[in-house]
Amino acid sequence: MTSTAHGVRARARIEVTAAIKEEARRQLAAEGATKLSLRAVARELGMASSALYRYFPSRDDLLTALITDAYDSLGEAAEAAHDAVADAGPAERWVAVCEAVRDWALGHPHEYTLIYGSPVPGYNAPRTTVPAASRVGLLLVGIVRDAHRGLGLAKPPLPAELRPEAERMAVELAPDLPPEVVTALVAAWAQLYGLVGFELFGQFNRIVEEREAFFRHAVAQLAHGVGLVYPQKGRAAKGAAS
Amino acid sequence: MTSTAHGVRARARIEVTAAIKEEARRQLAAEGATKLSLRAVARELGMASSALYRYFPSRDDLLTALITDAYDSLGEAAEAAHDAVADAGPAERWVAVCEAVRDWALGHPHEYTLIYGSPVPGYNAPRTTVPAASRVGLLLVGIVRDAHRGLGLAKPPLPAELRPEAERMAVELAPDLPPEVVTALVAAWAQLYGLVGFELFGQFNRIVEEREAFFRHAVAQLAHGVGLVYPQKGRAAKGAAS
DNA sequence: CTCGACACAAGAGCAGTGCTCACTTTCGCG
DNA sequence: CGCGAAAGTGAGCACTGCTCTTGTGTCGAG
């Protein structure tokens, strides 16, 4: 269909599309999602605003593209951080991934806001974004799985009323892990983004000062809650990421 | 100065101000913050859009007023839920407050988004909102304090590197509580909003089905992490708050 | 090599926004 | 009772997303 076989026309198209996304990302990073203006992008690119609609049917479609890219960028950063400590213990890897998420969020506040802040009202993320969005989650599941196969996991408590749901989630997310662990993992996943969001959105402002150390401790506790046993050696001080 | 003593003029002013906020809140609830339009509010109130600026110098100021109100509404809901179980154990009260936060968020999604979602970009919440914003936090601190004075608390772990910061936070937030507990409390506070936000913003969509039970369990674990010992009786099923 | 088709681009225009400003009306208070 | 300030008005500016009509540049088949 519109493969490279069609030649020059198609090449130009994907190049312009990329240029639009690039400029849009620039504006997003500079001013935030609400200030992102098609007309401004077109202006900066030296083209008529109407021409932009040949590439993105609407502003929301452009935003969707940026969202997918942001998820991928975050996922990549997390995976890179994980690979850098791939042979460390599960708890270390867990903390490394969490810190990567935090670092990425602090480095790309508006992109983070776009994907984990309030969804732009009146806008519903299409299913397209799901795979890109799952990368960090999969990473965490992988770490826990390794621990499960290796040193083993502590089983978090699970009330009886929640067991059916826990088993359902386990089947869907990680059939090889105990339902208790999967449940705790999902909760920890959400809680991680609570920690990051509160710091990013200023809720910690006159409250938490030593942000990095606080975060590191909190996510270590999260790991503990999932069943990963956190080694109590005083290792946290050295080798800061960022 | 502009007290009620000044009579009719001032009375009319606060009435119109209230009407504007009311209509604005209506639009906020219906369409979200970005769709809230001064002109639409004025239109609905049958006045010229420019007249609105006699009451709110800018759109942001109107939003700020709504934000403060939202914080107060949330705080009130949480306090009411707490008072309803005031003589229960600390863990029950903790869970009740958390559920109240969740219920309020699900019932007022756009208002919740306004205060705990991404702050409207380019907009910085003025210090005015701080007291209203603290109400839920104070409630949680109070519960933990009661437990501390009563049955006692388990001391959460605290790495040595974080102790100075923990002591600083304790001095500022709750000097009568152990620093370990205060630290865990701040983390739990952020994590609570991670749980609520993920559910509200659809991140749990094809993942968690039994939202209420899952949430209840998660926040109970949070309480545990703070040092509140969660009674293992099977009490969770009956007497739902909502 | 020519010519038609079609992707691409441009510009005007519509309806909407926040906000300002000069102006008129109204009404409470000295 | 009359003055002055507060309240309200409407036009207007610069901006937005988006549509529609009107060109153009270019590719590929005849």
TrEMBL record, chains A, B:
InterPro entries in UniProt: Homeodomain-like_sf, HTH-type_TetR-like_transc_reg, HTH_TetR, MT1864/Rv1816-like_C, Tet_transcr_reg_TetR-rel_C_sf
DNA-binding region: 37-56
Keyword line: DNA-binding, Transcription, Transcription regulation
Superkingdom: Bacteria
The keyword Phosphoprotein appears for this protein: no
Keyword match Cytoplasm: no
Domain HTH tetR-type residue range list: 14-74
Entry protein name: TetR/AcrR family transcriptional regulator
